[in-house]
Design brief:
The chain is an alpha+beta fold. The chain has 20 helices and 19 strands. The protein folds into three domains: about 160 residues, Ubiquitin-like (UB roll), CATH 3.10.20.70; about 375 residues, Glutamine synthetase/guanido kinase, catalytic domain (Creatine Kinase, Chain A, domain 2), CATH 3.30.590; about 110 residues, Up-down Bundle (Four Helix Bundle (Hemerythrin (Met), subunit A)), CATH 1.20.120.1560. About 45% of the residues lie in helices and about 15% in strands. The longest helix is centred in the C-terminal third of the chain and has 54 residues. Bound molecules: adenosine-5'-diphosphate and magnesium ion (MG).
């Protein structure tokens, strides 16, 4: 990197450059080969690698190291150990061994395991993932060497997001290799790529501190919509305010040091909402990088007197936040989702495309599962982009191509001319589908698919793991069918693709995903519409899905069931926390203010009457009646919510919370602005 503003790019990563500078030639070569080919590390070089890594980390200011992993909480976890080894009284050296590098023990009992871990066996293990390079995390007083690891239980069951992701990458890579073999392609490296667009909100810390709901749950459970929110559509791509730009610049500087290719920044649709998009990378690395992006966003915000909200729906009535996962497959460096330059490449493109369409059509339920969560329920299935129905958007040109394949016509020419895949020139394939349909959950965008259902706070590993697995199954199924067909390959492929279009086209939808007609139409097509967390977790227990994930060695039956249990538990806990904080705010912050205001009004009214005033009586009477009714209402709604919390049924808790919210939000407009105890939407969303 010679460009001056990129001087620091990647300097906090144990990159190939750092490896060469800190390890002997042979050790460096072995380690780099391990990293590039995802091979197991030669154990005889572990000590030498650790020594070089330590030297490098110390030169970068590190005093500690940690295995960095992604437990099923959705976040990341770390436990720091100093590079410290006492060598005698008041004497110590800085030590870090191959053993420290390769594996670690972490008490698994405090991480969600969904019944996988029996209480008497609380040990968990972390194992180095050499395919994602070690990096340095900084804080004001030093730095920590972070080693990306997988996390599993004593019995070898996975307790993290990374392990199944790595397994799924292997599964889809094998399937692609098999398919490419059928097309007579030479063996080459398969790379699954991800570019994750991260949406987030920024709010001023002073407001945040006064909102117990934001503090405890990441979202506001009360707050009336301000007069102006996003209806003028003036925020999206608008000029970025200096304070925000200052924050963004610092975020990028830090990300660049970590070798994270943050590239795009802009205002999003909702006020106070923004997006950061890095350049796509190898999937496993991109997932780790997204986890770091979220952390850097949060930490940097703090230094700027701001708070970064990653919740899917911090504010009712304005857009929520997603994490668009742009996913593709490359083979020997060529993107397989780029329409090709010749008939063979086009045939490969169409085969991969139809495999994906088949995968989504057959496994929409488990793909929807990968986006389940209390926060995301406010987006999916709640009249917001995208809907909970998983459909595929292709664009007009590709729709026409599929149509031509199905009907055996060459697009735009004589009706009976056959599109012969791989032999004839196909109809010219679109280079870029520009007619973007923002309402589709799974859209083809020219050279990749964009999965828009994942929530802003979720680990993308979950959805990517599912996507890889179902696509692997689909490609294998097509390969099996080709194996079973005799005769000319091209003719067989032609027949097969044609059948795929007919069998799976019901998942393709180009219309408006928000429209009220779509759920009805989708039901007619038999597409699942899993509206909430409970419904969308259920596919984890479906024997058909269990068989699929076991077949590909991505998740075992026990691992799937444990994930169901963890998801359900997390969901119930979150709803309960939200309900409890809503009740507490309503009773201890809102009610006293309303009661006080009411009593002030009532005594003013009494006074006015006693003084025989002619004017003001009507206004005071009307207002005190409204406030009085609101106060009664508040009392009733709070009691009801309290009962529902005790009963513990999530639907009723949610309904009671919604009811209470309507009352509180109405009162917000009746009570003296100066006395209202919570910062309002019009302040939080606009003042920073
Ligand atoms: P948009 O219009 O959706 O912003 P962009 O072309 O800017 O589209 O891409 C958005 C994201 O998609 C970026 O993170 C980009 O790096 C990523 N992307 C582009 N090509 C690929 C690919 N082949 N595989 C995965 N992600 C990709
Ligand atoms: Mg996008």
């Amino acid at each position: 990197m010679s460009d001056t503003n990129l001087k620091t790019y990647g300097e906090d990563v144990f990159s190939e450059k750092a490896i060469r500078a800190n390890l002997s030639k042979t050790v460096a070569a072995k380690l780099i080969a391990t990293m590039r080919d995802s091979k197991p590390l030669d154990p005889t070089i572990a000590d030498a690698v650790a020594e070089g890594m330590k030297k490098w980390a110390i030169s970068r200011g590190a005093t500690h190291f940690t295995h960095w992993f992604q437990p099923l909480t959705g976040g990341t976890a770390e436990k720091h150990d100093a590079f410290l080894e006492p060598t005698g009284p008041a004497q110590a050296v800085q030590r870090f061994s191959g053993k420290n590098l390769i594996g670690g023990e972490a008490d698994a009992s405090s991480f969600p395991s969904g019944g996988l871990r029996s209480t008497f066996e609380a040990r968990g293990y972390t194992a180095w993932d050499p395919t994602s390079p070690a990096f340095i995390k900084r804080h004001d007083n030093g730095a920590t060497l972070c080693i990306p690891t997988a996390f599993c239980s004593f019995t070898g069951d996975t307790l993290d997001m990374k392990t199944p992701l790595l397994r799924s990458i292997q599964a889809v890579s094998r399937a692609i290799e098999r398919l490419m073999g059928k097309f007579g392609q030479p063996k080459a490296h398969v790379e699954i790529t991800l570019g994750a667009e991260q949406e987030y909100f920024l709010v001023d810390r002073r407001f945040y501190m006064k909102r117990p709901d934001l503090l405890q749950t990441g979202r506001t459970v009360f707050g009336a919509a301000p007069a102006k929110h996003q209806q003028l559509e003036d925020h999206y791509f608008g000029a970025i305010r200096p304070r925000v730009l200052k924050f963004m610049t610092e975020v990028e500087e830090r990300l660049w040091q970590l070798g994270i290719p943050a590239r795009t920044r802009h205002n999003e649709v909702a006020p106070a909402q923004f997006e950061l998009a890095p350049m796509f990378e190898d999937l496993n690395l991109a997932v780790d990088h997204n986890m770091m992006i979220m952390e850097v966003l949060r930490q940097t915000a703090e230094r700027h007197g701001l708070v970064c909200l990653l919740h899917e729906k911090p504010f009712a009535g304005v857009n929520g936040s997603g994490k668009h996962c742009n996913w593709s497959i490359s083979y020997g460096g060529r993107n397989l989702l780029t329409p090709g330059a010749n008939p063979r490449e086009n045939a490969i493109f169409l085969t991969v495309l139809l495999s994906i369409i088949r995968a989504i059509e057959m496994h929409a339920d488990i793909l929807r599962m990968s986006t389940a969560g209390a926060g995301n329920d406010h987006r999916l299935g709640a009249n917001e982009a995208p809907p909970a129905i998983i459909s595929v958007f292709l664009g007009d040109e590709l729709n026409a191509v599929l149509d031509a394949i199905e009907n055996g016509r060459k697009e735009g020419r004589s009706r009976h001319e056959t599109v012969r895949i791989g032999v004839d020139t196909l109809p010219p394939l679109p280079k870029d589908t520009t007619d973007r349909n923002r309402t589709s959950p799974f859209a083809f965008t020219g050279n990749k698919f964009e999965f828009r259902a994942p929530g802003s706070s979720q680990n993308c590993a979950q959805s990517q793991m599912v996507l890889n697995t179902i696509v692997a199954e689909s490609i294998d199924a097509l390969c099996d069918k080709l194996d079973g067909m005799k005769g000319d390959f091209n003719a067989n492929l032609q027949k097969l693709l044609r059948r795929q279009v007919t069998a799976h086209k019901r998942v393709i939808f180009s219309g408006d995903g928000y429209s009220a007609d779509w759920p009805r139409e989708a039901a007619r097509r038999g597409l699942p519409n899993l509206r909430d967390t409970m419904a969308s977790l259920a596919p984890l227990k479906d024997p058909r899905n269990i068989a699929l994930f076991e077949k590909y060695g991505v998740l075992s039956r026990t691992e799937m069931l444990s994930r169901w249990e963890i998801g359900m538990e997390d969901y119930h806990r979150r709803i309960r926390i939200e309900a409890s904080i809503a009740l507490e705010i309503a009773r201890s912050m809102i009610r006293p203010v309303v009661a006080d205001e009411f009593s002030r009004l009532a005594s003013a009214l009494g006074q006015a009457k006693a003084d025989g005033l002619k004017a003001g009586i009507r206004g005071l009477t009307a207002l005190s009646m409204k406030l009085g009714a609101g106060l009664d209402d508040l009392h009733v709604k709070c009691d009801r919510l309290e009962r529902e919390i005790a009963r513990g049924k999530h639907e009723s808790q949610l309904a009671a919370m919604g009811d209470l919210r309507r009352t509180v939000d109405r009162l917000e407009s009746l009570v003296d602005d100066a006395r209202w105890p919570l910062p309002k939407y019009r302040e939080i969303l606009f003042v920073y």
